[in-house]
């Protein structure tokens, strides 16, 4: 069996482990977290290692609540996302920053612990069994055109990723006829309104096809991406203005889109018929618990 790693972005869990953090909401019949289902599905698909991206100050609590338990089932490693983890010449910028630099920096933090194909996911999203199976198959096969990196992403039907409790931000994907990604457009405040799917902005509203392909931050990558991310992060930091320091983020979807446009990578868009669900709002919990219960009753998971 080929080595493939699951990389779980969990640095945003927060500093309180009191059950109020969305990633720590217990949704299963025995108090399971969404992350338990994600790792179970990944192991079933063939993944052989799990890397958690966390903050160093949360390490002890994270291991006690999640990590040590998972380590009984599969090899576990840790990467640490810290605001100060920037080249020396940008330390002054880091001292001014109040939040992490974004998902691009999060994945870059894995460069010393990941040496095999890997799949990136959010800690608080449920992706479904088929997504892991499709990603594993893609990441373990040989690709032609070796001069260009081959990535993959799992896409979902936009309408099935919305929340009934408010607007969401989604990466809307344009897919070529051959199944590869042409572009991805981060779109904020997408809601259902009067039976339609709408992106509601301050000055305009835009209707979106409900069957549009949405990215939910599930990316299949190879270790060659780390050199690209490292150089890109340096360029990102160099370009920051004083107005950008607190708000601008180094985001994986934006990075990958630029690589696609520059023809440096090809991204195969995979699809899952399973429903995605997760926590955008605290009120989403009832829907998630109900969905997990239905999956359990249908035999997808044991009690």
Protein architecture, described:
By secondary structure, the protein is an alpha/beta fold. It has one domain: Spore Coat Polysaccharide Biosynthesis Protein SpsA, Chain A, CATH 3.90.550.10. Helix 1 crosses helix 5 (129-139). The model is unreliable at 14-20 (pLDDT under 50). The chain has helices spanning 34-45, 59-70, 91-96, 103-108, 129-139, 225-239, 252-261, 285-297; strands at residues 5-9, 49-54, 75-80, 118-122, 125-126, 149-157, 168-175, 181-193, 196-200, 205-207, 213-221, 265-271, 277-278.
Structural class: alpha/beta
Helical content stands at: 25-40%
Low-confidence stretches: 14-20
Q: CATH homologous superfamily name?
A: Spore Coat Polysaccharide Biosynthesis Protein SpsA, Chain A
Number of strands: 13
Biggest sheet features: 11 strands, mixed
Number of domains: 1
The overall pLDDT average reads 90
Which CATH-level-2 architecture? Alpha-Beta Complex
Outline: globular
Portion in beta strands: 25-35%
* Count of helical regions: 8
Order of helices and strands: EHEHEHHEEHEEEEEEHHEEH
CATH class: Alpha Beta
List keywords for this structure.
303 residues; alpha/beta; Spore Coat Polysaccharide Biosynthesis Protein SpsA, Chain A; eleven-stranded mixed β-sheet; 8 helices; 26% strand; globular
Topology (SSEs and partners):
Blueprint: E1 5-9, H1 34-45, E2 49-54, H2 59-70, E3 75-80, H3 91-96, H4 103-108, E4 118-122, E5 125-126, H5 129-139, E6 149-157, E7 168-175, E8 181-193, E9 196-200, E10 205-207, E11 213-221, H6 225-239, H7 252-261, E12 265-271, E13 277-278, H8 285-297
């Amino acid at each position: 069996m080929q080595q493939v790693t699951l990389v779980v972005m969990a640095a945003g869990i927060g500093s309180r482990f009191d059950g109020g953090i969305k990633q720590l909401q217990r949704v299963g019949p025995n108090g399971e977290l969404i992350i338990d289902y994600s790792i179970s599905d990944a192991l079933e698909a063939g993944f052989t290692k799990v890397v958690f991206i966390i903050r160093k100050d949360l390490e002890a609590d994270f291991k006690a609540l999640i990590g040590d338990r998972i380590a009984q089932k599969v090899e576990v490693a840790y990467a640490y996302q810290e605001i100060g983890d920037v080249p020396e010449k940008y330390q002054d910028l880091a001292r001014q920053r109040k939040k992490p630099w974004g998902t691009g920096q999060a994945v870059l933090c894995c460069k010393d612990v990941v040496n095999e194909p890997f799949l990136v996911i959010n800690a608080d999203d449920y992706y479904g069994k088929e997504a892991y199976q499709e990603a594993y198959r893609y990441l373990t096969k040989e690709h032609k055109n070796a001069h260009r990196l081959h990535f993959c992403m799992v896409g979902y039907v936009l309408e099935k990723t919305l929340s009934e409790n408010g607007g969401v931000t989604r990466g809307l994907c344009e897919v070529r006829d051959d199944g590869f990604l042409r572009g991805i457009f981060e779109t904020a405040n997408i809601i259902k309104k009067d039976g339609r799917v709408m992106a509601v902005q301050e000055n305009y509203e835009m209707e979106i096809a409900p069957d549009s392909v949405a990215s939910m931050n599930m990316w299949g990558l190879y270790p060659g991406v780390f050199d690209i991310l490292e150089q890109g992060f340096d360029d990102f930091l160099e370009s920051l203005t004083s107005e950008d320091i607190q708000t601008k983020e180094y985001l994986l979807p934006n990075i990958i889109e630029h690589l696609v446009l520059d023809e440096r990578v090809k991204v195969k868009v995979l699809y899952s018929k399973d429903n995605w669900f997760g926590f955008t709002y605290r009120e989403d919990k009832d829907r998630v618990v109900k969905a997990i219960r239905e999956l359990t009753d249908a035999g997808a998971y044991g009690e």
